[in-house]
What does this fold into?
Amino acid sequence: MRVSVVGVGYVGLVAAACLAEGGNHVVCVDNDRKKIDDLKKGKIPIYEPGLTEIVQHNEAAGRLIFTTDLEEGVKNSLVIFLAVGTPPAKDGSADISAALGVAEAVAEAMDGYRIVVTKSTVPVGTHRKVIEVMADKTEHPFDYVSNPEFLKEGSAVDDFMKPDRVIIGTTNPAVMEIMKQLYAPFMRKSSRILFMDPASAEMAKYVANTMLAARISFMNEISGLCEKFGADIESVRAGVGSDLRIGNAFLFAGVGYGGSCFPKDVQALIQMGDQQGCPMSIAKSVQQANYTQQDRFAQRILDYFGDRAGTTTLAVWGLAFKARTDDIRESPAIRCIKKFLDAGMKIKAYDPEAIRAAETELNGRIETAANSYDVLDGADALVVFTEWQEFRTPDFELIGQKLKQPVIFDGRNLYDPNYVKKQGIEYHSIGRGS
Ligand code: NAD
It folds into this structure.
């Protein structure tokens, strides 16, 4: 099938590459000229495991092309995916202006029937707005599908290729059939396509993200109570997660959730509820508990150093909001580091993929190194923010030697407290009584 994807960021580029891998001819359109020029040269603008290989392979096979010319995409495609960003607006609602602008431009470029599919996360009711703005600009017939994306950064290619489910929001049987064909390569074992009306599809995305965020926030809140009672959140997690009705996923306590999705989608759901006079009190608590958790972790470190903050250097491991991504959007590490810097602390940070983005975000106020051990030299403590695999079994002896003071603050509970203490290192983690 001939398709185009407008907006080639984390979602759009993965979707485009995977659809090309499925045998489709895909035109990738983005208004960021540098990004498109880089992609044409084979340079992948984001870190996502497995993505480089399938982009390069499909580009070489002529199934994936990159352009800034939307018209080229529209003229050559039956199905047009919108995967542009929907960042939070000032009032916390999702800003859908890019999606609406692209929908309008698509309508203007249409020379016949097209199917427009929204992959971006958009507030419930957006389907009506898209249809309205498109109908204003074209005489040609079109159909609209809401197809929210559920991939996770860090395993996005795998998630797209082997999805738990694909939600297709349309009530038109002919369009259902086309979408089924498009997703058929990813449904070899069994069909996991769920058809529903567009409003329900839009809503399902917000509910899924808020539900997952709620699990994390709940466990984070419980971690604080564990610390008060001397209980161990990791034992509590095992005890709770082994209940099949609950399951183990998304129960890890830590420094809080971040990223480009959970914070903004929880906020947008709150905003939708307020607008409709149907307050989302649970979502509000989920959001509040998340900020409290991040601030509690930062405060613990600030309290530990107290008056010495101005002469303290912290070594930081991890800047990305989670492992296997270079994404620092709403990263707890960035929020906490800003607090440390404001208190006069010096930061030496390492992350396998996110250093460049963090340096830009923090206006060069941090020192960075290309190696996790180099940041330890002369630092007063090590603070772990991201659960990168390479941080999981470090050389504690070397850490102890390099740090001025052998102390670790672990925001991801990566280590066994007894083992670390036996190495002569003072260890503070989340919800484990210390
Ligand atoms: P992103 O910022 O990485 O990518 C968006 C892309 O759209 C950028 O390359 C940008 O240049 C391009 N763009 C913006 N306006 C444009 C325009 N007018 N014309 C052409 N291109 C334009 O964003 P993302 O993380 O890929 O997220 C995209 C959407 O998918 C959001 O709604 C997000 O909530 C949703 N989503 C994201 C994830 C995730 O893990 N990142 C997962 C599921 C859903």
The chain has 16 helices and 14 strands. The longest helix spans residues 198-229. The radius of gyration is 23 Å.
